[in-house]
Automatic annotation (TrEMBL):
Any GO molecular function: hydrolase activity
Name by which UniProt lists this protein: non-specific serine/threonine protein kinase
A Pfam family: Pkinase
Enzyme class: transferase
Cellular localization per UniProt: Nucleus
Domain called Protein kinase: residue spans: 1-239
Alphabetic keyword roster: ATP-binding, Hydrolase, Kinase, Nucleotide-binding, Nucleus, Phosphoprotein, Serine/threonine-protein kinase, Transferase, tRNA processing
InterPro entries, alphabetized: Bud32 (IPR022495), Kinase-like_dom_sf (IPR011009), Prot_kinase_dom (IPR000719), Tyr_kinase_AS (IPR008266)
Catalytic activity line of the entry: L-seryl-[protein] + ATP = O-phospho-L-seryl-[protein] + ADP + H(+); L-threonyl-[protein] + ATP = O-phospho-L-threonyl-[protein] + ADP + H(+)
EC number, as in UniProt: 2.7.11.1
PROSITE patterns noted in UniProt: PROTEIN_KINASE_DOM (PS50011), PROTEIN_KINASE_TYR (PS00109)
SUPFAM superfamilies recorded: Protein kinase-like (PK-like) (SSF56112)
Species of the source: Schizosaccharomyces osmophilus
Lineage: Eukaryota, Fungi, Dikarya, Ascomycota, Taphrinomycotina
Sequence similarity: Belongs to the protein kinase superfamily. BUD32 family.
Amino acid sequence: MTDKQDLRKQCGQLYHEIEEKGWKVVKQGAEAITIITEFYPGEPCILKSRPEKRWRHPILDQKLTRKRCLIEARLLAKCHAVGVNCPLLYFLEPNRGQIFMEYIGGPSVRDYIKEFVSEEEYETSLAPLMKIIGSEVAKMHMNDIVHGDLTTSNMMFRSVETLEPVFIDFGLGSVSESEEDKAVDLYVLERAIASTLPDSAALFHYVLEAYAKTWKQCKPTLRRYDEVRQRGRKRTMVG
């Protein structure tokens, strides 16, 4: 099946709108389609749309889609309120499962590391960035915001000149006081950095250092993170 056929099958009615308006699909995930469009003429924006899931009952599907859409929009709004760098929310159509938000034009942190940083410069170049990431994640967690998919692909730059990471894609996020949920966020981030960098241990130390400095009451979460990390290592050893 070609990408175009797959898109037509997944998107249903949205596919005709994409074709008609010439929108550019930038990401096609299991839960949502991410599209570059315009919020008004000359102002690019991101449209994140959750297509209908035809295997679910239509009423249940609409309720679940609306709920996830509202949760993600509220998380974006809450992040802005507490000073976390994330896309600005423009407009919401929960009944259609659509969120219009700020377009972030730079590369992802993952792509930046792979394309712009040589192995010899890793620690010198990336330590300041890791500290910013740690501080931003701490701001989320101290306000009970759990990202849910905290990878280097879900952090983008507005430009390579500024190198301010913008956290995107809160589609799996939640508001949670759970130390376990926050610890899993940190573990997912650690594994994401490890998959991007050949020697990640020293750099992730900068993340945790900034995390603890920003959130003074994080010790219970860091203890839980150590437990989650040990469980993850055991699973890897067992296979």
